[in-house]
Design goal:
Number of helices: 14
Helix content: 25-40%
Largest sheet: 8 strands, mixed
Shape: globular
Structural class: alpha+beta
Radius of gyration: 23 Å
Number of strands: 24
Distance between the termini: 39 Å
C-alpha cells in the first residue's frame, strides 16, 4: 500500500513553543505561505513538560496583545527565594544577589502545555494546519540530498512486524522547507545532525533529566506567585542537582528536580533523589495534607552555545531544543524556543518570497539572524555556567558562576569547554559507593509505577517496541558487570529491568508501554546501545496541565 502525500510550503515537526511560534510568525508575515504542524502527542500539549516560570519577552514580541487574547499567563511572580539545603532539616537562604539567574520580576508561573494549546489556537485561526496524533518517523530526501519533508509512522503494525486489520500506512508531507522542533534529543534532529555533520567543531551536547509533580495543597499554605529554587541535599556527591517549587493558580504548586546526566556514580537513581528531596522539612511542610495529581519526566538540554550545532541544512532548520536553545543557568527555555522559531519564520519568509526563490537551499541566513538577536546575547552571557558546574561541582562551581555573572556580567574573555559527553562519565560500579534510598512512604514520596500512572501514559501494546537495541547482548554482557546496568535506575518510568529467571539466568526486560518519552536512555546509556525511535502516534504520556 503506497503512502499518500501532501504538499506545503513549510512543514513543522513538533507543536511545542518553538514550532508553534514559527507557524504563527510565518502566517503573520504572509497569508500565502502554507504551513503544516505535525505533533506526535494525542493533542497539542500532551507531551509538553516544563517547570515553568516564563519570561514573557518573546510572547510579547509575537503577540503584543497576548493579555487581550487570553494567553494563560495568569500568575505573575510575587516573590523569589533561593535555598541551600545542607541536610534533611536544614536550609540556608541565599541572597538573590548571589543567584543572579533567579531574578523573576516580570515573569509568570505557567503551564507550558496550556500555553502551547493557546498558541495552537492562534495558529489555527491564522490558517495553520495542525495534525496531532501523527508521529514524524522518517526524514524524506530529494535526489540532490536536500530534505524533502517527513513521513509519519505507520499505524496498525503488530509487534512481529505484520500488518493488523487496522493497518494504515504513514503519510508523506512534502515541503519547500521542513522545520524540526521536536524538543530535547529530537529523534529526527539527532539523525540530521549526524547526516549533515552539523556538530562539527562543537562540544558534545549535555543534558539533565527533569522531574515534575503537580500538587494541590492546603489553601493556607498557598501563596500564588511564590517561586522557590533549591540546591544541595540530597544530591549525591559530585552531582550538581537543582530543584524548584512554584506556586501556581488554584491552590496548586509545581515541584521539580533536575539531575545533570553527567553524573559519575552508576548507582544514582535520579527518580529516587527527587522523591527523597520532597522529604526535606522545607518542602514537606507544603506537601503535608496535599494531593499529588500529576507526574512527568523529560530530559532537558543544557550544553549552551558551545554545544549548539549548525542549525541549517539543505531544505530545513533546527529550532528550539532540537538545536539547544535552553538557558540552563536561568532554567528557562520557553522564551528562547519561541524566539528561535520566530527568527526561523523570518528567515523562511525571506527565502520563500524572494524574487529568485528556490526550494531546498541551506538557509545560512538563519544563523546570521540568530547571532544578531537578543537570544544569542542572552545565551552567550550565560555560556560558562554549565561547564563551571561540571568542572567544579555544585558548591565551588556556583561560587565561580556568581563571579562570572554577578561581577563580570558574563563578559569574561574566555569560554569554558566540556568535551566529555554525558554517556562517558560513568565509572565502574565496583569503584563507586552504593546508594540506599529510603523506601517511599506513599504520602510524600512514591514509587515509579504509581507515578507513571499519573502521567496518563499509554501505548498500543501490540506494536514494535520503540526502545531499540543495537546489540541485544550488551545490557547483560557489558553494562551489567561494568555498571550494574544503570538503565534500571536512570529511567524515570521503570521501563528497564534485570529479571532473574527461576533457573538463575538473567534477562534484560524492556517495558516499553511505561515509557514517558523522556529520552534519558538514548542519552545516558554508557554503550550508546539504546536508540529511541517514534512509537505509533497518540502513544506516550498525556499531560493535562504540565
Amino acid at each position: 500500500m503506497e503512502r499518500e502525500s501532501m504538499e506545503f510550503d513549510v512543514v513543522i515537526v513538533g507543536a511545542g513553543p518553538a514550532g508553534l511560534s514559527a507557524a504563527c510568525r510565518i502566517r503573520q508575515l504572509s497569508e500565502d505561505i502554507t504551513v503544516c504542524v505535525v505533533e506526535k502527542g494525542a493533542e497539542v500539549g500532551a507531551h509538553i513538560l516544563s517547570g515553568a516560570v516564563m519570561d514573557p519577552k518573546a510572547i510579547t514580541e509575537l503577540f503584543p496583545d497576548w493579555k487581550e487574547r487570553g494567553a494563560p499567563l495568569n500568575v505573575p511572580v510575587t516573590e523569589d527565594k533561593v535555598m541551600l539545603m545542607n541536610n534533611q532539616s536544614s536550609a540556608i537562604s541565599v541572597p538573590l544577589m548571589f543567584a543572579p539567574g533567579f531574578h523573576n520580576d516580570g515573569n509568570y508561573v505557567i503551564s507550558l502545555a496550556n500555553v502551547c494549546r493557546w498558541l495552537a489556537e492562534q495558529a489555527e485561526a491564522m490558517g495553520v494546519e495542525i495534525y496531532p496524533g501523527f508521529a514524524a518517523a522518517e526524514v524524506l530526501y530529494n535526489d540532490d540530498g536536500s530534505v524533502k519533508g517527513i513521513a509519519t509512522g505507520d499505524m496498525g503494525v503488530a509487534a512481529d512486524g505484520s500488518h493488523k486489520d487496522a493497518y494504515m500506512p504513514g503519510m508523506e508531507l512534502h515541503a519547500k522547507y521542513t522545520v524540526f522542533s521536536e524538543g530535547c534529543r529530537g529523534h529526527l534532529g539527532k539523525q540530521l545532525i549526524e547526516k549533515f555533520n552539523l556538530d562539527e567543531g562543537c562540544d558534545p551536547q549535555h543534558y539533565g533529566i527533569g522531574f515534575k509533580e503537580i500538587w494541590e495543597i492546603d489553601e493556607s499554605k498557598h501563596q500564588a506567585g511564590l517561586v522557590i529554587h533549591t540546591t544541595g541535599w540530597p544530591a549525591s556527591k559530585g552531582t550538581a542537582s537543582g530543584s524548584y517549587l512554584y506556586h501556581a493558580e488554584g491552590n496548586q504548586i509545581a515541584i521539580g528536580y533536575v539531575v545533570p546526566l553527567s553524573y559519575t556514580n552508576p548507582h544514582v537513581s535520579p527518580f529516587d533523589e527527587f522523591q527523597q528531596w520532597k522529604q526535606h522539612d522545607k518542602i514537606k511542610s507544603y506537601l503535608e495534607g496535599g494531593t499529588r495529581i500529576s507526574y512527568g519526566a523529560r530530559a532537558l538540554i543544557k550544553g549552551g552555545p558551545q554545544s549548539r550545532p549548525k542549525m541549517s541544512f539543505p531544505g530545513g532548520l533546527l529550532i528550539g531544543d532540537d538545536a539547544g536553545t535552553l538557558n540552563f543557568a536561568r532554567i528557562k527555555g520557553s522564551h528562547t524556543a519561541m524566539k528561535s522559531g520566530m527568527l526561523a519564520a523570518d528567515t523562511l519568509h525571506a527565502a520563500l518570497t524572494a524574487d529568485n526563490a528556490i526550494s531546498g537551499a541551506d538557509l545560512v541566513d538563519y544563523a546570521n539572524r540568530f547571532d544578531s538577536s537578543w537570544l544569542n546575547d542572552e545565551l552567550q552571557k550565560w555560556r560558562n555556567f554549565g561547564p563551571l558546574l561540571h568542572k567544579f561541582g555544585g558548591m565551588v562551581g556556583a561560587a565561580l558562576a556568581f563571579i562570572d555573572q554577578g561581577i563580570f556580567q558574563g563578559k569574561l574573555p574566555f569560554t569554558l569547554r566540556d568535551k566529555t559527553p554525558d554517556y562517558q562519565t560513568l565509572k565502574p560500579a565496583s569503584e563507586m559507593p552504593k546508594i540506599e534510598y529510603p523506601k517511599p512512604d506513599g504520602v510524600i514520596s512514591f514509587d515509579k509505577l504509581s507515578s507513571v500512572f499519573l502521567s496518563n501514559t499509554n501505548h498500543e501494546e501490540d506494536q514494535p517496541c520503540h526502545l531499540t537495541l543495537k546489540d541485544a547482548d550488551i545490557p547483560l554482557m557489558k553494562n551489567l558487570p561494568m555498571y550494574d546496568e544503570p538503565a534500571q535506575r536512570y529511567c524515570p518510568a521503570g521501563v528497564y529491568e534485570i529479571v532473574e529467571e527461576a533457573n538463575g539466568d538473567k534477562r534484560f526486560q524492556i517495558n516499553g508501554q511505561n515509557c514517558v518519552h523522556c529520552k534519558t536512555c538514548d542519552i545516558k546509556d554508557p554503550s550508546q546501545n539504546i536508540v529511541w525511535v517514534t512509537p505509533e502516534g497518540l502513544g506516550g504520556p498525556n499531560y493535562p496541565n504540565m
